[in-house]
Amino acid sequence: MNFLKTLNVEFNQISDLSPLSKLTKLQDLNIQNNKKTNLYSIRNLNGLTTLFVGHNKISDLNGIQHLKNLKSLYLQNNKITDLSPLQECRLLAYLLINDNKITDITPLQHSAQLKYISIELNFIADFQVIIVTY
């Protein structure tokens, strides 16, 4: 299983992803509609390019900053407030963060590769960073 490139475990009851830490060749991971509260346990999956974690209970993005090859990230319908760990995801091109508790999108100002951002249903008052940066 160490050569597995795609894994979809959507619509389960998963809260612990630590068993996935050995799947270092994984490129695409779908853990939507589970019971995850953070992403720290997948911080070693450096090969990930696409990550679906929508419809969980994620409030903390700590650990995601280690996923340097991440290009597409789906975080919709969680409890995220702080986007600062995304500052290190320099290859991120597609970001869906709808329906969270985000008030500040300033951490996205260094994401020069971003081509698509969806941030509806949050608490953002100032979109200036998007206008200036992109």
Give the SSE layout.
Layout: E1 6-8, E2 28-30, E3 50-52, E4 72-74, E5 94-96, E6 116-118, H1 128-133
Parallel strand pairs: 1-2, 2-3, 3-4, 4-5, 5-6
Describe the structure.
This protein is mainly beta and 134 residues long. The protein has a single domain (6-133), classed as Ribonuclease Inhibitor (Leucine-rich repeat, LRR (right-handed beta-alpha superhelix), Alpha-Beta Horseshoe). Helix content is 4%, strand content 13%. It contains 1 helix and 6 strands; from the N terminus they run ββββββα. Strands 1-2-3-4-5-6 form a 6-stranded parallel β-sheet, with no helix packed on it.
Rg computed from alpha carbons, rounded to a whole number of angstroms: 14 Å
**What is the C-level CATH assignment?**
Alpha Beta
Shape: globular
Give the H and E element order.
EEEEEEH
Percent range for β-strand residues: 5-15%
CATH architecture classification name? Alpha-Beta Horseshoe
At the fourth level of CATH, the homologous superfamily is: Ribonuclease Inhibitor
